[in-house]
Amino acid sequence: MTETNLKRQFKPNKELDKHIFHYQESASMTSTGSWFIDLENKKSYWDDIAKKILEYPSDFVPSLKMAMTLYAEEHHEYIANIFSECAVSGIAFDTEVLMLTSKNRKFWARAIGKPVYNTNKEIIGVRGIFQDIDDIIQKEINLEKASEIVASQNSRLFNFAHIVSHNLRSHSSNLTLIVQLINDLESVEEKLELLDNIKDVSESLNTTIEHLNEVVSIQTNSNQLKVKVDFTDTLDQVTTSINQILQNKNVTINSDFSKAKFIKYIPAYLDSIFLNLITNAIKYKHKDRDPIINISTSKDYKNHNRVVLKISDNGSGIDMEKFGDKVFGMYKTFHYNADARGIGLFITKNQIESLNGEIHVESEPDIGTTFIIKF
Fold first, then answer.
1. Which residues contact 206 (CB under 8 A, 6 or more apart)?
2. Is residue 211 located within the same domain as residue 250?
3. For residue range 200-223, what is the model confidence (pLDDT) as tens digits?
4. Could you give the CA distance from residue 342 to residue 339 in angstroms, rounded to a whole number?
5. Which of 45, 121, 133, 271 has its CA 20 to 30 A from that of 37?
6. Which residues contact residue 302 at a Cβ distance below 8 angstroms, ignoring those fewer than 6 apart?
7. Is 120 helix (H, G, I), strand (E, B) or coil?
8. Where a domain ends, among 221, 236, 260?
């Protein structure tokens, strides 16, 4: 065999080795692992990069029995459906899913799969790739959260500006009008009568300024140090402070904090949240029954184990079709209570959102209201 023929013979192998090397480098740099499910022999195969991404040793032998352990529990049903459709009906998939490593670390992956056919056009397996895209997804989630925060802050700023321009201007106009009337009157008795009106307007003006100052202080105080706060202790402190009201209104409070006993939070904010929502439930009690307030905590395992607080009552309820988009607005009221100010829920929402939390409300007239807070 001549040297030329020898080179020709080995050239394809060298080319193949080069392609394999480039494939492995590309797959490694993009965190893309390959896999194959042999339906005939009921076996599963991963390449080395797939094992590395899933934090298994290079000599690990995967099996079909462990398939579901590779995915977060909340995605089990979805994964079972798309794999079944691919293996039975030949429907390829390209999706994003939460996967689990051997160390129980969750990460977002892009999973692509397609059926493998034999010469008789029968499906004998499923093959594909998955790519670790956790950084990309987390950036998208953070961007979405940032966008929501900005939108929420803009909304609060607009609300704040409206109160400043409308309410303060209203008080200012009233004072100006009264002063003009005093100047126009000659009778001392009539002038003295108008002085009482000045007192009323001044008190209203002072109350409005206090409310605005409270809103501003929320943003300033959100930088306070968070500490470990006990839900039971917080509830005890709040109920002790309003014990007389609870007794007079014959209020029953049921609590269950077994699923989440503590939270790292600003204590004053949690006190305020409990106080506002409990007194709100009492203030808007149903006219035909005593108030019953149920308070509980839980963990949102689908969303980074966030602590969730739920406060429900059997009060008058809110017509959500009419007022759903105004529940948390400043100076918005939905009942005919003489002492309704429409500031408590606005303050509560601002406190929660200033620490990147969420508050939602579910309510039915004559049935009651539930506030759900995700810290």
1. none
2. no
3. 777 767 766 765 666 566 555 555
4. 9
5. 133
6. 74
7. coil
8. 221
Co-location of 210 and 258 in the same domain:
no
Helix (H) or strand (E) holding 149: helix 134-163
357 vs 301: CA distance, rounded Å: 16
Please compute Rg for the chain using Cα positions.
Answer: 32
Tokens at 364, concatenated: 């039915």
Residues 206, 159 share a domain: yes
Whole-prediction pTM: 0.49
Residue 157 CB partners (closer than 8 Å, separation 6+): none
Q: What is the residue range of 11's domain?
A: 1-28
CATH number of the domain within which 119 lies: 3.30.450.20
Class of residue 37 by CB neighbours under 10 A (exposed 0-12, middle 13-18, buried 19+)? buried
- The domain tally of the chain equals 4
Same domain, yes or no: 366 and 255: yes
Which CATH number is 252's domain given?
A: 3.30.565.10
The answer to whether residues 164 and 212 touch, using CB atoms and an 8 Å cutoff, is yes
Confidence of residue 87 (pLDDT cuts 50, 70, 90): very high
* Structure tokens, 183: 């100047």
